[in-house]
Specification:
- The termini are far apart.
- The protein is globular, with a radius of gyration of 19 Å.
- It has 266 residues and is α/β, with parallel strands linked by helices.
- The chain is built from seven helices and eleven strands.
- The longest helix is centred in the C-terminal third of the chain and has 26 residues, at 240-265.
- It has helices spanning 25-35, 59-66, 87-95, 116-132, 189-195, 203-206, 240-265; strands at residues 11-17, 48-52, 75-78, 102-106, 110-112, 138-140, 155-160, 165-168, 176-180, 214-216, 223-225.
- Helix 1 (25-35) links the parallel strand 1 and strand 2 (48-52).
- A seven-stranded mixed beta sheet has the order 3-2-1-4-9-6-10, with helices on both faces. The chain has a two-stranded antiparallel ribbon with strand order 5-11.
- The chain folds into two domains: 11-235, Spore Coat Polysaccharide Biosynthesis Protein SpsA, Chain A; 236-266.
């Protein structure tokens, strides 16, 4: 289904991915996340960019092909610049390929749980807020769970009531976000290369340490990350034993919470 309603300003979609091996638990997770983007990719982005950040055997590009979404991207490329293993390179490398004033990014493990129209509305809200507040350089669109994410990621000082928009308490987070292209002028790919293995931190922290330069809207958005994704980095897989232990403990916590609620109602 095609969606023809445009955005309020030209905006590109840029993403990056590194798949160390296939098959693997992380590759399966990325496949599920990217597959969920199908309807969203029909939105009229000025550019749709996918960067394979030097996966062995073109692993990320091969995975993208297997989702049958390759043709929805206007650019699907492989990073040819050798660099240390760090997520900064893939993120900055992909968004630098965009030419629009605003850039929308999803990490490769972010799921879209909503219609294309809901995605468009969320992205348009971010652009509207950034147009009205020129000092805001980025807008986080990731769904946040107060019981899971720390308070430092959650809304703090209110920017507007209708719609509800706030500055984050401390951290921005770019897993699902809209940024101004100007942020790339602060820390670009060339700067990352000068640091090499000694990256000072995550890119979103290096470009600004002020939460007042960023914004966050509603906690529930079409873009979310599964809790289990935090057990997989792009370069390291977690053992089956650790994964099963985590899943078992999660189920036990749910069971205890259910039993406690049952007892309290008696």
């Amino acid at each position: 289904m095609k969606h023809n309603s445009g955005f309020v300003r030209p905006i590109a979609f840029a993403t990056c991915s590194y798949v160390k091996k296939r098959p693997s638990a992380r590759a399966q997770m990325v496949f599920g996340a990217v597959s969920s983007w199908a309807d969203m990719l029909d939105l009229p982005f000025a550019e749709k960019i996918f960067l394979d950040d030097r996966s062995p055997d073109l692993g990320a590009l091969q995975l993208l092909r297997s989702t049958q979404l390759l043709d929805k991207f206007t650019r699907a490329e492989y990073c040819t610049t050798s660099h240390p293993a760090h997520c900064n390179f893939g993120y900055v490398g992909s968004v630098q390929l965009a030419t629009t004033p605003y850039i929308f990014h999803l990490d490769d493990d972010v799921y879209v749980n909503g219609s294309a129209e809901e995605c468009r509305q969320a992205i348009d809200l971010a652009i509207h807020v950034m147009e009205e507040h020129p000092t805001i350089m980025g807008f986080s669109l990731l769904s946040l769970d107060p019981s899971f994410q720390g308070a430092e990621w959650l809304p703090d000082e209110i920017i507007s009531e209708q719609p509800r928009v706030s500055h984050p308490k401390k951290y921005f987070g770019n897993a699902a976000s809209v940024i101004r292209r100007e942020l790339l002028e602060r820390v670009d790919f060339a700067q990352l290369m000068t640091w090499g293995d000694n990256q000072p931190g995550g890119w979103e922290i290096m470009v600004s340490n002020s939460p007042k330069e960023f914004a966050i809207g509603e906690l529930n958005t079409p873009f979310h990350v599964k809790r289990t994704s935090y057990f997989f980095s792009s370069t390291n897989d977690i053992s089956t034993r650790v994964r099963l232990t985590y899943m078992a403990r999660t189920q036990l916590r749910k069971l205890f919470a259910k039993n406690r609620a049952t007892v309290e109602t008696k």
